[in-house]
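Fold tokens
===========
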Amino acid sequence: MTFRNVIVCRIVPGSESKVGEVFGHYDRATRPQDLGVIGRTLLSFHGLYIHLIERVADPKVTGQTRGLPAFQQIAEEIAPYVTPYPSYWKNPSDSVAKEFYHWAPPGGPEPDQATAAANRTVIVARIKPGAEPEVARIFGESDAGQLPVQLGVTGRWLYAIDDVYVHVVERRPDADAIAESHDRPAFSKIMDDLRPYISPYHPASWHGPDDAVATPFYRWQAED
């Protein structure tokens, strides 16, 4: 099963293309797959930088913890644009969000990575400190029913870092769009249940769930 890491930092608005160019250069010039990295997506959301890394296995098991052979060079080149988010930041590992919930259809085959990446949505919000167990419980109860299957969900991962909540959801290519699910009673119940714990990251621009979706600005997938 593919292992995912999510890194959360701050990004200078408008610098996405420069950061993407740095990763594009090193992803072409080096072989991240030799370190177990098979894909990456960079996204931005109201001054946040989200780096989703896909690996063939948990790096704690394989010992391959670096994302690229040129990790230091990349860090130096994007430093003018990407800076730490957490107030407690001391080293790069402090930028890795903690996964606190994961769901996939029981017995279902894992989609290939190119298909998964093309049908992935990354939702960003704020989370009440310490609320991870309650949020996981709410999704666990919902995912035990028919809603995720009805919406074509093939995988869901929830992460938190400081007050940032990141919800990664993957769907079948033929699944309904998120906007088409808002009127379902079960979806509305989840939103109501989450309200004490999850709130918009950028309230001024939030009018509905679609306004919580991060924008991808760079993708790379290993070809071998």
Observations:
- The mean pLDDT is 89.
- The radius of gyration is 17 Å.
- Residues 16-29 form the longest helix (14 residues).
